[in-house]
Amino acid sequence: MTYNVHRCVGVDRKLDVGRVAAVIAQARPDIVALQELDVGRLRTGGVDQAHALAARLGMAFHFNAALKVEEEQYGDAILTSGDLTLVKAGALPGSNALRRLEPRGALLVDIAIGGRRLQVLNTHLGLVPHEQRAQARALAGPEWLGGPLRRDPIVLLGDFNATPHHSVYRTLAATLGDARKTDQTRGPCPTFPSRFPVLAIDHVFVSGGIAVKAVRAVTAPLARLASDHLPLLVDLELL
């Protein structure tokens, strides 16, 4: 599952970590990539949302802070019911011209589950096109997918703020396969905005050695309320 949780603030503007946990729990994923988590931030009551969600779900986790302001952090996490090992966490390129843009990062882990191993790379790209393109090139380049840290099978997933019509998507789809493309019967599975989803901007890309069995957006009433994104759920089989 990939899920932008919007700092656990729903479309009703209510902060509710338990509601986000319930959305995830109902889908019963083995691996969850989360974006837009607050850790120790005053605006969300000082809660470590990554830890709180992992504890509620009974999962191990790693959190990567894309933004740090004194004790406050904001970023992304990977949760799993398997054994989790951190491979790399780091920043993605920003914009020199627009220094006030929100910083972005990526988190790569190795997961042992069901007697097999899988690498998972979670990210959340920016909103400005030239910044997005630089970030996509970095992900496809030698420090991430194109370098020695990569061990297939691997899954890249997250909020890319780009539809399949954007060059950012094409850069990453040239490196890994889009899980949606293997399940044509499901259509584009839009995930944003959650109440009336029309945009497919949350994606799951897979390497060889992985079979995609099903792809769907989680559209239950609670999911439509809990965040401004719907979760994207993909059933995978390691070959």
Offer a quick outline of the entry.
With 239 residues, the chain is of the alpha+beta class. The chain has helices at residues 17-27, 49-57, 129-140, 167-173, 221-226; strands at residues 2-4, 31-39, 60-69, 72-80, 83-91, 105-113, 116-124, 154-159, 177-178, 202-206, 210-217, 232-238. Helix content is 19%, strand content 36%.
What is the CATH homologous superfamily assignment?
Answer: Endonuclease/exonuclease/phosphatase
Question: What kind of sheet is the major sheet?
Answer: 6 strands, mixed
Number of strands: 12
Using the alpha-carbon principal axes, give the shape.
globular
Domains (count):
1
Strand order of the largest sheet: 5-6-7-8-10-9
* Euclidean distance between termini CA atoms: 19 Å
What order do the helices and strands come in, and which of them pair?
Elements: E1 2-4, H1 17-27, E2 31-39, H2 49-57, E3 60-69, E4 72-80, E5 83-91, E6 105-113, E7 116-124, H3 129-140, E8 154-159, H4 167-173, E9 177-178, E10 202-206, E11 210-217, H5 221-226, E12 232-238
Parallel strand pairs: 1-2, 7-8
Antiparallel strand pairs: 2-4, 3-4, 5-6, 6-7, 8-10, 9-10, 11-12
Helix pairs in contact: 1-2, 3-4
